[in-house]
Write a structure and sequence with these properties.
The chain is of the alpha/beta class. The strands form 3 sheets. Strands 1-9-8-5-4-2-3 form a 7-stranded mixed sheet, with helices on both faces. Strands 6-7 form a two-stranded antiparallel ribbon. The protein has a two-stranded antiparallel sheet with strand order 10-11. Helix 4 packs across helix 8. It starts with 6 loop residues before the first helix and ends with a helix. The chain binds pyridoxal-5'-phosphate (PLP).
């Protein structure tokens, strides 16, 4: 079986260094908010080109705490409208509703799966206060245009970069376009911890300080609580692990890009719609997502041929039980995407031989 993602194989490449990092943390006797976190935060901020990176417990918290910080700073208030792509992972939407803000679900662009700039413009009202741009599957959303519109309308821009560490246009990286950006280091992400972890990047000192307080009970000084904060810290051990893996991120991205190139050149089956790439470095291929009208038949067929695929995502947020108030709204592009998408294996440890077998089997598929 060609696995969709072999995390064991990915992490075993760095096992010696990971064990050294863990040993260092064990022997330090200091497990939270210490040197390892500060050092990873600095390295990750440098990598993204931002002034700050603030480690938090996971990617969802990175989103939640950024919006929460903007509320504490008086930049957002209950009921404000946040524009967000309707086809995103549920976390982007949960972060908005968790903060009593109102998500305005907009249809994405069918060829990039990212925000469609015309739909963003149409969605702006006098209640709109922010755009949450998701770099879905690893490709940057049209950030220049989004930032231009945001500036015209005085909107905050939050990037959801959970799938796009390292994506860039002329060196301008994911995480350094908006007012702030949320990252996830969930094990399966392109930069993955050995457990949960996340971070916010920003160039705004006040926002950075507020998030630092919020992640630690609302306190920047022990036993003095400015906010009714939460506990969302990134452990020293995960920070040490991430610092090791960050060194190999660019190399892994290049490898993902080389697989994507082989898929794009090799897959010629007319039943398959390949991903559209707007700029070669703007896509870091967290996922390689194709579309097919007979998606479920294709998935079964590949499974019978020992190729594991996944669907990102089978049910759009507005069709989820938890958002039953939206179950009847019609978002045909989003719904089409969820019916047709299929993610092929792509990872830093997928072999050339496996890539060729996948291409061959996809090309042999008859709908
Ligand atoms: C993974 C992911 C998140 C959430 O990250 P966690 O670390 O799992 O909380 C948020 N947004 C997107 C687009 C993601 O893919």
């Amino acid at each position: 079986m060609i696995n969709f993602l072999d995390l064991k194989k990915i992490n075993q490449q760095y096992q010696k260094e990971l064990v050294e990092a863990c040993t260092r943390v064990i022997e330090s006797g200091w497990y939270l908010l210490g040197k390892e976190l500060t050092s990873f935060e600095q390295a990750f901020a440098t990598y993204c080109g931002t002034k700050h990176a603030i480690g938090v417990a996971n990617g969802l918290d990175a989103l939640i705490l950024t919006l929460r910080a903007w509320k504490e700073l008086g930049k957002l208030k209950d009921g404000d409208e946040i524009i967000v792509p309707a086809n995103t992972y549920i976390a982007s939407i949960l972060a908005i509703t968790e903060n009593n803000l109102t998500p305005i679900l907009v249809e994405p662009n069918l060829s990039t799966y990212n925000l469609d700039i015309e739909n963003v413009k149409l969605a702006i009202t006098n209640k709109t206060k922010a755009v949450l741009a998701v770099h879905l599957y690893g490709q940057l959303a049209p950030m220049q245009k989004i930032c231009d519109i945001a500036k015209q309308h005085n909107l905050l821009v939050l990037e959801d970069s959970a799938q796009a560490h390292g994506a860039h246009i002329n060196g301008h990286k994911a995480g350094n376009w908006g007012d702030a950006s949320a990252f996830s280091f969930y094990p399966g992400k392109n930069l993955g911890a050995l457990g949960d972890a996340g971070a916010v990047t920003t160039n705004d000192d006040e926002l950075a300080n507020t998030i630092k307080a919020l992640r630690n009970y609302g306190s920047n000084e022990k036993y003095k609580n400015i906010y009714q904060g939460t506990n969302s810290r990134l452990d020293e051990i995960q920070a040490a692990i991430l610092a090791v893996k960050l060194q190999y991120l660019d190399q892994e991205i290049q490898y993902r890009q080389s697989i994507a190139k082989k898929y794009i050149e090799g897959i010629t089956n007319p039943h398959i719609t390949l991903p559209t790439v707007t700029n070669l470095t703007a896509h870091v291929w967290h996922l390689f997502v194709i579309r097919c009208k007979e998606r479920d038949t294709l998935k079964d067929y590949l499974h019978k041929n020992n190729i594991e695929t996944l669907i990102h995502y089978p049910i759009p947020p507005h069709k989820q039980i938890c958002y039953k108030q939206w179950n009847n709204i019609s978002l045909p592009i989003t719904e089409q995407i969820h019916q047709e998408v299929l993610s092929l294996p792509i990872s830093p440890v997928l072999t050339d031989q496996e890539v060729h077998r996948i291409i061959e089997k996809v090309n042999e598929f008859k709908a």
